[in-house]
């Protein structure tokens, strides 16, 4: 099993003396004290009635199973019974997953899948940089198809110290390893030492200090390595969700988002898949051209795109989001009609800032976005349970829209008149 293999590679200590039943620990008020005993705890804070918590249950069962017999202890706290524990850990939303060490705690912010949660726990429960001492281990790590960063060379000096610092800071986000020249050379061509590279999918890319800086200062290395690792910690074409988009926005690049439909068994209609593949191929083939400006990705969440575009978007859809201003750009042509050349032209125009700009993050747009979200949510619920919706949302929302309408510039609302007609089609029967 993949996870077990990873644990073995990075030399986890297995504590087999504990029986498995101890691993599905229901924690209570005493946990506030128990944590002081040290060790690593992966804890889920939940309430029994939340739908999101219920959805997490099967995933959590896998997490418990996978981390059984490792030195990470897994527990859960029912915050409806033990509100004090929730308060002590400053839990605001349920479920919240935290990795807790004696004094430190880290909140899980990724997509709540078994793999992501386990990776999060494993990363944080070891040293920031794991040393790889055997060539086979490096082969195994590479075969795991996970993104990782690696330092090659003597474990001393400015580059090493900086790498270690950044790894400590971004420990929750990626795997960091170090290896000797001898081991690394068997896998990667390295021209100068020490070196730092990232392994993504099947390629690797080196960190470089940058030119025109003969005098290599600590500050410069620190700043460029922070920036580089922050930008490189995502795959070339990751799946983007509501959970990870905020992290991805921190790259400070343009986010190129392909929106497609995906059913429950992860099938994407053929034409949409073709369009997605076209953009993905472009991102890979022209990495050297676009990598500095764009982080590509795709999503199956139409809602995410709707909320960015503030309209119900047709699928497939291509939208480019400016991560610093939250403005967005969309091509004039229908995505499926676009050739790779047309897509490139669109991207080039974005870099040159010659395309129309929409949205943004100023107060009027924020208010409108809130209004849009509330309205689409309402439309959704209306189709589910009209009576309840009216009772629960009718009054406050009517009031809210009234306020928004009065304080929001009229043109933003006017501009969207035609969308009103689209809404009924969007209702799920
Ligand atoms: C290194 O750079 C990061 C981000 O640019 C900054 O937050 C941090 O304080 C810097 N560290 C040092 C030691 O200068
Ligand atoms: C976002 O917009 C600002 C202002 O127009 C621009 O300076 C910046 O280059 C754009 N791109 C990114 C990735 O922030």
UniProtKB/TrEMBL annotation:
SUPFAM superfamilies: Thioredoxin-like (SSF52833). One of its GO terms (cellular component) is endoplasmic reticulum. Residues 1-19 form the signal peptide. It is found in: Membrane. It comes from the Eukaryota. Residues 7-126 form the Thioredoxin domain. Keywords: Membrane, Signal, Transmembrane, Transmembrane helix. It is a single-pass membrane protein. This is Thioredoxin domain-containing protein. The lineage of its organism: Eukaryota, Metazoa, Ecdysozoa, Arthropoda, Hexapoda.
């Amino acid at each position: 099993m993949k996870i077990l293999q990873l644990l073995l590679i990075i030399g986890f200590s297995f504590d087999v003396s504990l029986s498995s039943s101890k691993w599905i620990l229901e924690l209570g008020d005493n946990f506030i004290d128990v944590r002081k005993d040290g060790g690593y705890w992966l804890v889920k804070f939940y309430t029994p009635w939340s739908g999101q918590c219920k959805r997490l249950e099967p995933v959590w069962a896998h997490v418990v199973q996978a981390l059984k017999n490792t030195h990470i202890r897994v527990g859960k706290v029912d915050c409806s019974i033990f509100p004090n524990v929730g308060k002590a850990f400053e839990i605001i939303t349920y479920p919240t997953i935290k990795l807790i060490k004696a004094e430190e705690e880290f909140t899980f912010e990724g997509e709540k899948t078994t793999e992501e949660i386990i990776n999060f726990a494993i990363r944080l429960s070891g040293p920031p940089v794991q040393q790889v001492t055997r060539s086979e281990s490096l082969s195994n790590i590479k075969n795991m198809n996970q993104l990782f960063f690696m330092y090659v060379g003597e474990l001393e000096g400015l580059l090493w110290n900086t790498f270690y610092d950044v790894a400590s800071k971004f420990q929750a986000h990626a795997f960091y390893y170090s290896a000797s020249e001898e081991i690394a050379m068997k896998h990667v061509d390295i021209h100068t030492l020490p070196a730092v590279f990232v392994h993504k999918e099947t390629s690797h890319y080196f960190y470089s200090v940058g030119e025109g800086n003969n005098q290599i200062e600590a500050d410069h290395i620190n700043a460029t390595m922070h920036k580089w690792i922050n930008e490189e910690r995502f795959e070339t074409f990751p799946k983007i969700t509501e959970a990870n988009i905020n992290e991805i926005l921190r790259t400070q690049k343009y986010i190129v988002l392909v929106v497609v439909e995906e059913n429950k068994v992860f099938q994407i209609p053929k034409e949409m898949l073709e369009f997605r593949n076209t953009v993905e191929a472009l991102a890979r083939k022209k990495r050297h051209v676009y990598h500095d400006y764009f982080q590509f990705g795709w999503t199956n969440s139409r809602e995410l795109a709707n909320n960015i575009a503030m309209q119900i978007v047709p699928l497939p859809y291509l939208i480019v989001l400016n991560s610093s201003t939250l403005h967005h750009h969309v091509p004039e042509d229908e995505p499926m009609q676009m050739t790779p050349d047309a897509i490139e032209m669109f991207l080039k125009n974005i870099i040159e800032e010659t395309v129309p700009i929409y949205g943004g993050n100023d107060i009027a747009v924020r208010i409108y976005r809130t209004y849009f979200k509330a309205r689409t949510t309402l439309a959704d619920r209306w189709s589910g349970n009209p009576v309840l919706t009216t009772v629960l949302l009718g009054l406050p929302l009517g009031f809210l829209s009234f306020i928004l309408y009065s304080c929001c510039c009229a043109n933003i609302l006017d501009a969207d008149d035609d969308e009103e007609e689209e809404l009924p089609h969007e209702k799920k029967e």
